[in-house]
Amino acid sequence: MGADNNIKGTVVTGVIGEDVHIVGIRIIEQALNDNGFKVSSMGAQVSQEEFINAALETNADAIFISSFSGHAEILVRSFRDKCTEAGLNDIILYIGGSLLLREEQWEEVEKKFKDLGFNRVYPPGTSPTRAIEDLKKDILLRREKGD
Amino acid sequence: MGADNNIKGTVVTGVIGEDVHIVGIRIIEQALNDNGFKVSSMGAQVSQEEFINAALETNADAIFISSFSGHAEILVRSFRDKCTEAGLNDIILYIGGSLLLREEQWEEVEKKFKDLGFNRVYPPGTSPTRAIEDLKKDILLRREKGD
Amino acid sequence: MIKNKKLSEDEFFKQRQEVLAQWPTGKEVELDEAIEYHKNLPPEKNFVYKMRYAKEHDEIYASTGMGKATVEEQIELLQYVEKEGKADLLGLSPDSLTRQNDYKAAQRGWEESLKTGKSKLNGLPVVNCGVSGIRKLVESVNCPVQPRYGAADARLCDEILFAGGCSNSSPDVFMDFWQHSAKVPLEKVVKTHQYVCRLMGYYTERGVPICAGAQGFYGAGIPPSLQTATVILSLLLQVEQGVKHLSVKCTGHGNLVQDVVSSKVRLKILEEYLDKLGYKDIEMFPGISFSLMQYPVEVGSSFAVIFMNTLMAKLIGAQQNDIRTVAEAKAIPTKEDVAETFRTAKAMQNFIQKQNIKLDEKEAALEAQMEEKEVKAILDKVLEFGDGDPLAGAAKAVETGVLDNPFAANRAAAGKVLGIKDSAGAIRYYNTGNLPFSKEIIDYHKEKIAEREAKQGHKVSYETLVSDLLAVSNGYLI
Amino acid sequence: MIKNKKLSEDEFFKQRQEVLAQWPTGKEVELDEAIEYHKNLPPEKNFVYKMRYAKEHDEIYASTGMGKATVEEQIELLQYVEKEGKADLLGLSPDSLTRQNDYKAAQRGWEESLKTGKSKLNGLPVVNCGVSGIRKLVESVNCPVQPRYGAADARLCDEILFAGGCSNSSPDVFMDFWQHSAKVPLEKVVKTHQYVCRLMGYYTERGVPICAGAQGFYGAGIPPSLQTATVILSLLLQVEQGVKHLSVKCTGHGNLVQDVVSSKVRLKILEEYLDKLGYKDIEMFPGISFSLMQYPVEVGSSFAVIFMNTLMAKLIGAQQNDIRTVAEAKAIPTKEDVAETFRTAKAMQNFIQKQNIKLDEKEAALEAQMEEKEVKAILDKVLEFGDGDPLAGAAKAVETGVLDNPFAANRAAAGKVLGIKDSAGAIRYYNTGNLPFSKEIIDYHKEKIAEREAKQGHKVSYETLVSDLLAVSNGYLI
Ligand code: B12
Ligand code: B12
């Protein structure tokens, strides 16, 4: 939808915390690959530090965090700050999955995680296509800003 | 429950209006019979006039109206008055079944039909035993008053 | 004297004038124009074509009655259920005043509903809405709009429904006599039904197939053979008048062996009698409903009832999965109730329809044998009463209790037959009343009941009967 | 080197000291006292006795995981589900921090939950609650409290659960290695599991039967034979340590022929290998779960999933109907969610459990034959790698992809095998990776996939795979 199809980039992916729900992010990774992105896949049970190190190493445009344990709110606390401290300025942060223990109004969930510094927040059942369209736009924006 | 087991009486039973739902009242009739009541069974599709005439003929203590069409409110309008006009003073009137088209708070349904002159109102699934216990009490009361 | 004989075109058209004069909207009906109208409808809106498609593709379609007091409300309901409920058939229930031909009272309910915007009737006042109303409805959706109702005299209502674009109805003589009227004599009901079927035949003969359905009577709690005999008689009335497409309703009681067997026996004997009486080229579509006297009040269990209904549909090869919504026990369902129920049914149907499961055939053989004997005993007695005519002896059969119904609303029912469940949940004759059964049959049922008594350690009684009627509602088979 | 060999009592008790020292509540566990405690519990609270009763009486019991952050909340939940959900088994899910042995973090979540009165964990922090907490729970209900969980190292958690009065667990080595840990090597998982099973054997040998369960890995989307081979290996570990009662979990994928066949093959081959390897007097209780990668978001369809699960349970003769609540796709279920789901399941079970339906045997024969060959090919290769020891060769098997799992969380998985549905909804190998399969087997699966491609008119792809994973969630089989 308007986003340039030549936009590519590097994405670090993984499931945060003690969480083992790997399938969702595997599907996203496959889709990223199919769309020409470089994927640095960290798998399940990834700590904040591991995400940051991988992003630094690969000079990533974005970090995709998946979380299904219901503990996401605690697990990503101050992640944006740590990214900035580590020098990952304006890195694109997406989070998706079953983020909270109780189903709440989606708007509230989204707000909660946007306030925590995420650029975009996705509910369970998000189609990979949607995330990739968004990513292309955000990367473009980020590069324009960087210029 | 306090009610004298020797209390017997005569009950006119039937399904009012264009309604054909006969099974519920058949079961009630069987139970009334088993408990020694005289039952004057009018069957399905009974008009207000037919109920009143049968009650006059049998010198009934009570009329049991069953209604499942959802049209009960319209069908029993001014029934109490007509009973009184016909000389059925203080006749016991019970109604039961699926009385309204939309499920409403039971308290409201009950109030609606009590205001229409019914002594007791029963929801679908009422056990015959309960109705018979009530009837014994009400007949006793009525006879005491009559004295 | 009633006879099972096709109305001549003269008789039919003479009677038709009276029928159409019963209410002003009768004037809107023009047969030739209506036939043209049907021919211009997309074929998937025709009930027969849709059933045929289902049969050829092993599909199962959920079906239920739905009725609101105005066309506008009905459209909203059907469109919602079509979309959100993934429906394949869209039921249409006329209200009960219309069923009783009290079009004046229906008019009052209709007008009050239009004024207040709240449904004041338990179904659609079809006659008052007229042909144009029904066409508006039919045109507002993509599935066949399927009238589902019984009435002692549905002549005008069906005239309007067919002219409005509907292509099925259920002129089910015994159902309508016993269950849908309290005082109308059988002879009268036969006559109105012969008229309606003649009308269906008229359309059919002119290239617009119309499907007729029958289930005999509301079968909950009564062993299947009596219902089967009655269904067959109802269907014989239909085909004689020119009906070619039959929706043969079967009733599930909960024991799958009995349910599957009885549906097979029903179809088999029907074919035999059609053959014997010389009716050719009749197309049959079985349907099933898990027939309860009381549907579960509790939503969880009511999904379990849909589970059984769907499983039965699968096992008997039904096209129609005739279900009740999860709100059935309580009130007229809302559009959300219907859609949720239909979504569940659709998923169940999708999951099960092409699977390779079946009944244990061995256990089924004896059951089938006995049921065949029962059905034929009844049918042959009725034919005997009528000197070979299936309707001529019907009134006598009803009078004497050779055809019987314990839960009839009509006063003209012997009401002697009673059913009770055996220990496997199959329905047995607790009382055979005046059914013309051999000792072998009577003993078979006695034995089954004795088996249950032995298992539960006490005799069955009228209370058992009532508790049987309510078992499934409470989440148990027995 | 790992070996499938019973731990000596010495080794066991030495390791036990370390285990119990992992968290202060470990001190509460006293084996002899715990055994006495079990012996004084009513027998119907024992999981094995309950399963045996079900088996003898053709009963099916619903089972699901349920976990709240505090004992008090868990009691409220279980009591509600027991009463309002008519439950026969009461699941208990430990939270995921506990599963990862992060008792400190679990303690924080627990304390915060106690303080705020709101569950802050996705399950019960069993270790923090301690023996007394679990006993309070067990004593508050009448059904067995059934721990349902996986963890790479469940030693302390299981110590506390058993001492608390629970009598089953699922020390399922491959499930826990692949699905419940990302970094722990197989050898380590084997060791913790040998310990847990030794503990279960210890109780069992002293007259307190404890049941061990296994399902191999989360099987959604993967053909059954690979899972069967893996389950059998997991179970062989259990019995070697003295476990005598097995809950053999089977996985339904939607095609009933495949589902029933694979459960039968699973039990048959298990018996063969138990026999071959000399294990005697093993009692088996089959259970089934309709395993989806994504449960339906829409409530209607989720009842249809319970329908299939229950039908599968019936057809395979399972005692446990292992279901997910209607809230599964969304969040941790409330007590109302669980109760409603259980009521539905209970009614379905009541309706179906004694019915006489079965699978079409003919179609099943070839499927069974092929599956047996597949399972044995894998098992024999693993045994070959281990010189006849089922665990000694396991690490190599995992490394080389002779045992594989495409959806493993653990990095040590070849991840080459992929499954896809055929046109009847059975799962086939789209990619056999390094599974030691003959050409005959590979061709069989290829053919089935080709059949589907022919039917749908285009090739299957990774997208097909994803859409297959989500089909049932949307109310379709394929
Ligand atoms: C399969 C499964 C498991 C498997 C996981 C197997 C594995 N290795 O992956 C097993 C059995 C091991 C498991 C275990 C547990 N599970 Co689990 N599990 C599920 C289940 C059934 C399906 C998840 C799944 O794979 N979906 C399929 C994929 C394709 O869909 P998806 O995950 O939604 O992914 C899509 C999108 O969300 C999106 N996406 C996902 N992440 C991201 C990230 C970004 C950046 C973007 C853009 C998009 C995106 O893209 C994907 C592709 O379209 C869900 C319930 C459900 N949804 O039906 C519960 C569920 C997720 N599990 C749950 C829980 C609680 C657990 C346990 C803690 C056990 C328990 N107490 O019940 C343990 C946890 C173990 C641990 N340490 O984490 C809960 C979570 C509740 C919550 N959030 O409050 C759920 C919702 C079940 C429930 N209702 O209780 N589970
Ligand atoms: C069987 C049935 C039929 C059969 C009736 C057969 C017959 N001859 O009796 C048939 C198929 C013919 C039928 C037709 C219709 N039905 Co109908 N039917 C039912 C059904 C499934 C069961 C009723 C029943 O027999 N219950 C069994 C008995 C034992 O229980 P019970 O009736 O509750 O009786 C007990 C108590 O209520 C109490 N009781 C009853 N009356 C009284 C009176 C007194 C004084 C006392 C003390 C106690 C008492 O005692 C009984 C014994 O314990 C109900 C839904 C349900 N409940 O599951 C719908 C239902 C009653 N029907 C309904 C409707 C609308 C119709 C139709 C108009 C069709 C339509 N539009 O859908 C037609 C009406 C035809 C007509 N002219 O009236 C609606 C009524 C809705 C409403 N009130 O708003 C219901 C609730 C279904 C629904 N959800 O839409 N129906």
Description:
The complex is a heterotetramer, with 2 copies of chain A (147 residues) and 2 copies of chain C (478 residues). With 147 residues, chain A is α/β, with parallel strands linked by helices. Chain A has a single domain (20-144), classed as Cobalamin-binding domain (Rossmann fold), CATH 3.40.50. Chain A has helices at 23-34, 48-58, 72-75, 79-85, 106-115, 128-146, and strands spanning 10-15, 38-41, 62-67, 92-97, 120-122. A 5-stranded parallel sheet of chain A has the order 2-1-3-4-5, with helices on both faces. In chain A, α1 links the parallel β1 (10-15) and β2. Chain C has helices at 9-20, 31-39, 47-56, 71-84, 96-99, 103-116, 126-139, 155-163, 173-179, 186-205, 224-240, 256-276, 299-316, 335-352, 361-385, 394-400, 439-456, 462-471, and strands spanning 61-63, 90-92, 145-147, 168-169, 211-214, 245-252, 283-290, 320-322, 357-359, 418-421, 427-431. Chain C is globular, with a radius of gyration of 21 Å. The N and C termini of chain C lie far apart (44 Å). The chains are: A alpha/beta (147), C alpha/beta (478). The interface between C and D is large, with 45 and 45 residues. β9 of chain C pairs antiparallel with β9 (357-359) of chain D, so a sheet runs across the interface. The complex binds cobalamin (B12) (2 copies). One cobalamin sits between chains A (18-25, 27-28, 64-66, 68-70, 94-98, 101, 122, 124-128, 131) and D (65, 67, 93, 96, 99, 122-123, 179-180, 218, 293-295, 327-329, 331-332, 407, 409, 469).
